[in-house]
Amino acid sequence: MLQFHTTGSRRSFLQVGGLGVLGGLGWQGLAPGEESGSSTSFGRVKSVIFVTLYGGPPQTETFDMKPEAPLEARGPFKPIPSSVVDLHVCEHLPRLSRLLHLGTVARTLSHKDTAHAASLYTHLTGWPHRINNQNFPATPDDHPHYGAIVSKLKPPTRQGVPASVIVGGRILPQFKGIGQTGGFLGKVHSPFVLSEQLRRLLARRGELTRLRIDGRQRLLQALQNRARFLDQQRPAANYGTVQGRALTLLNSSGFIPAFDTSTESDRVKDRYGRTPMGGYLLMARRLVEAGVPVIQISDIPVGGEQHWDLHYANIFKRLKGNLLPHLDQSLSALLGDLDERGLLDSTLVICGGEFGRSPWIDHLSNPPQGGRQHWPHCYSMFLAGGGIRRGHIFGRSDELAAYPASKKIGPWDMGATILHLMGIDPAGTFSDRQGDTRRVCRGHVVQEWI
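and the corresponding structure tokens:
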């Protein structure tokens, strides 16, 4: 049980009884706003992990519960106190509730797009899609994924390491992985996608002898020379660069071993959980150690079906049965593990989806669905580590968590803050693959977060 000790309006200490999960964190409780980020936050972050809860987790069943809301709006779950004064979260996030002092809960993100594909694009690029409220496939003229921006403007210094990796496969492959490409920067800057098939291939890397790899490299060079002879220099150069990067990664002694989680102890695997999400977040920690700057975790089941898209009457059964418990165990393990290894101060962890869910339960459709619908107008995000303000609650929603009541921000503002922390000027410009000048970001740094 958590016991809070306060002096006046400020908390001084938190005593935790029988909670081994907090061991080694050296934790001291914080009142909201007690600790702010350093004024030298620019470039503080070495890696960012996007825990992408695709489909739209409900804010009212996670970080912005409304127990006093009318019956037709509130769900069956109860709020519990967290390690931050005045911050209550869902009862099915007990482990995470003890670690929320490590970051900021932002409750007032808002945009206007209700489509999964377009909203995911906004979440992962920081730009609204040009076709609003539509599930549209990726195109070469799209804005680039955050990892592609880092690849272009601040690539990793460690040899053989890509700028970004997508763990769990690209979300919405039927729409060409919208929001998860190099876009107008070109394929050479696209994230490295780790699907289950590729994981199995990498596990057999030892079967690729030095002779076979060298042979492939010579064949690639011959094809490039032939293409140049046929006056197709631009495609050949692009092909060669992309394929050359793949060969470099295949030969990497630091990057490829990060995928081999078999070297981790049973205790560590049990801590993260023997679930896909647990395995993905364990791999994320290993990729941070390998020096990968941007890591996207795709929280989708095998087969790519929607995960947090909770329209139907089984919404609370799914939340209680697997979605919330799996997130609770794996994310709390990641935060604790990063902190214990001294990596959290330089690693930014972002957890949330492309939007939230409607604050009322659907009893009016014909036939009634009983779930919650898409809702981009007000939703929550949890950010921790990497210079993010600790023990902070940002913004306030109205009585239903339907609209921001204060401090409304857009996902592009979150993007500007991420880029700032990674040492990239969000107000800057860069050149696309055609040589045209483009803005890096449309948002503004959220100063209260850092």
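(Above: one complete record from the training split.) Residues 1-38, 226-237 have pLDDT under 50 and may be disordered.
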